[in-house]
Amino acid sequence: MTDKKKMTEAFLKEVNKLHEKLELSKTMTADYYEPGMMEYPDQYEGLYNEIDKTVLIRFDVKGTRYEGRTELIEKIKTDSPVKIVREKNNAYNANNFAVVTVSNKSLGNMPAVLCNTIAPLYDAELLTIEKSKVSFTDPISKRGRYAK
């Protein structure tokens, strides 16, 4: 199996996991709990279109509680454009992708597991990020204690 094929399969596996979170949200009851449970599983998505070879991913931005990002997120609106910026020099993950506003203010980071599967494809110019936008926000007063 070629490296390109392995990298693509790893990425599509993570895309499918995002879709599975969305599907799980449809069956969850109010008493459902798992350790480290995601706060809004109905907001995740991962879809691969085999015909035109496009991928849609919707994920929870990580690191939103640091560097004044919470206040910035309070002001951002659904459907606002954002940029996904490759950060090879990130001190915590050389595969990192930051999520930033159009004025380059950091909102946080793409989850590491996605970064780690996207970065090799992106760096090899086998994947491009064409468009990104905010698909969901929640006021701090409505967030769970871990998201505040």
3D architecture notes:
The chain is an alpha+beta fold and 148 residues long. The chain has one domain (3-138): Alpha-Beta Plaits (2-Layer Sandwich), CATH 3.30.70. 28% of the residues lie in helices and 18% in strands. It has 3 helices and 5 strands. It has helices at residues 3-25, 69-75, 112-123; strands spanning 45-49, 54-58, 82-87, 96-101, 106-109. The strands form 2 sheets. It has a 3-stranded antiparallel sheet with strand order 3-4-5. A two-stranded antiparallel sheet has the order 1-2.
Helix/strand layout:
Blueprint: H1 3-25, E1 45-49, E2 54-58, H2 69-75, E3 82-87, E4 96-101, E5 106-109, H3 112-123
Helix pairs in contact: 1-3
